[in-house]
Please model this.
Amino acid sequence: MPDVFSISLVRRTLLAAAAGVTLGSAPLAAQVPDTTTTPDTTVFRVEGIRVQATRPVTTVGGASAVEIDLDALPLPPAATAEEVLREVPMVHLRTNSRGEAEVTIRGSESRQVAVLFDGVPLTLGWDARTDVSILPAGAAQEVTVVRGLSSILHGPNVLGGVVEMNVGRSRDRYAPASLSFSMGGDDRGGFGGTAVGSTPVETEWGGGSVRAGVGFRDSPGMPLPGGVVEPVASNGLRLNTDQRSINGFVSGRYVFDAGPWTSVSAASFDAERGIAGELGVEAPRLWRYPEVNRTVLAWSGGTGWHETPLGRGDMEFSVGYDRGSTVIDSYATRAYDEVDGSERGDDRTTTLRLLGDHTLGARGDLRASWTLARIHHVTTADGESDTYEQQLGSLAAETIWRLLDRPIGGLEGLRLSIGGAWDRGSTPKTAGRESLGTIDDWGGRLGLSAVMNDGATLVHAGVSRRGRFPALRESYSEALNRFVPNPELAPERLVSFETGVTTRVGDAEFQVVGFRNALDGAIRRITLEDGKRMRVNADELKSTGVEFIFSQPLGAATLGGDLMLQTVDLVDPDAVAVQPENMPERSGRLNLRFPFLAGVDALAEAEYTGPQYCQHPDSGADVRLDGGTWLNAVLSKVFSVPGLRVGQRIEARVSAQNLADVALYDQCGLPRAGRLLRFELQVS
Model:
């Protein structure tokens, strides 16, 4: 049994501290750039473009990425990382049958995408993936989504993309003193609110800032889309999708004038929620979560750049502690009045990462990292507890070489990145079942980035190879007697290639990227003859595609959009289901931002998701899910009230999601939400 008091005490202290900093903030200072921190992903940016909600960039390591301006997104109060990532081009999110929001990129599986919280990998855990619906978006100052492998230094099990959330680790030395409140609701009776504040800190030795926020949300459920009917009366809502949650964060950063720096950040989430049962299924998953909580702590620091006998260098460290618990109650019928099973999962993951940088003469840089993770999980069911433990490590190094000193024709900069990694995993505790043993694997990558046309064009290419060890849950979980453990699972190994161009033509900006991925030993789910499921290794999963992103100013308006076309093929001759799950081969969106009337700004958007496949929960056979288009709209107006300490800027916003009430499915029997109208008010 976990130390419930200590977990609760940490969360209460965190939320109280967040409220204290939030209420104590006042306008005082402007942002000051900080160059002491080496970011996990270094990017090239096309110069001379206007600020956008999402902005395509290219990493120095030869991978495409998108930077996200959180302030420019039409997010609801107490927004989560899920709601942020749904606005990001080329990122596919779906809610699985456990009620978790999964992130996939380029035909990858959600366990292949890393989520970093101030450099701490949240995806190293019992399930090896992160439910982004429980991460508070307000904690992040910067969010970058890399669609490939930009660096070999991120740690073990990073294959199919990286989501970086910088909370305390920011490019800005000071966060401006500020205080903002937001509140809102929807036409189904849901409501929520958020308070976020920051204050700078200055001493005779240096300076920094402290940020904090709290948020809450209460929702009676998700609206049913058109044409979808629940088996029992549900008042126009998807049955058992109600949720009540509270979250908070605190972060602090201090930079000494001599160069060293340190940052501390923490985020916590508590919720009670239900999850939708599959429709049209004989044995649906009728679950509720009476308790879901997670607390993440990250402490980082570094020496800053200093002269050494061999040039210039710096050292950094980060320590992460990720603790959470989930209680699942399984019900006998859709009335949800008779519990027929219960399971509690308690997770604790500790990570340590060391990172060093040093120059190699006038043109080169060497970066090296060492990452260790210890994953501890306890499952309690029917009064008995099973303990599992996994240990992961990675030792990696890469070099970046500036191959061009001065412009040659239209070529102004050329960088080459070469890296390699050695990874190791072991499972010393497996609740008496067969251990996976100790597994070693290697990774490598090669990237090239070029700057051309007076900084208006960036060209990149990269190739990488990396492995992922099976998660403890994949190998050993029974999920309330729905799965059969398979301790013989082998690692997955991904070889990927991408090349692309990011350019500016006049005021317009474009990014075009082609990619090919080949995943050997892809871990997938199958259905056995008795109806239970098991995870096995397939022969290969291959995806090939092209991505387009564009933005075109039209006077005071801006037209933007994205399109992804891919083919995904699963090679598994012995399987009943031969189609890859939950991987649409076409998706995209088109949006127009424009001034409407009387100072009101408008956003109109069409969001398309193409056909995809799922495995039927009863038979395991392939089921084709039709695609469709969501129509979304936002109207907002800003009111200025000068002379006030708080409340100088008030923004009122009305938004509509899925205006046409289209029924779209991301998984068998699980439609997305129907039409939802929201209203929000933000005061800052």
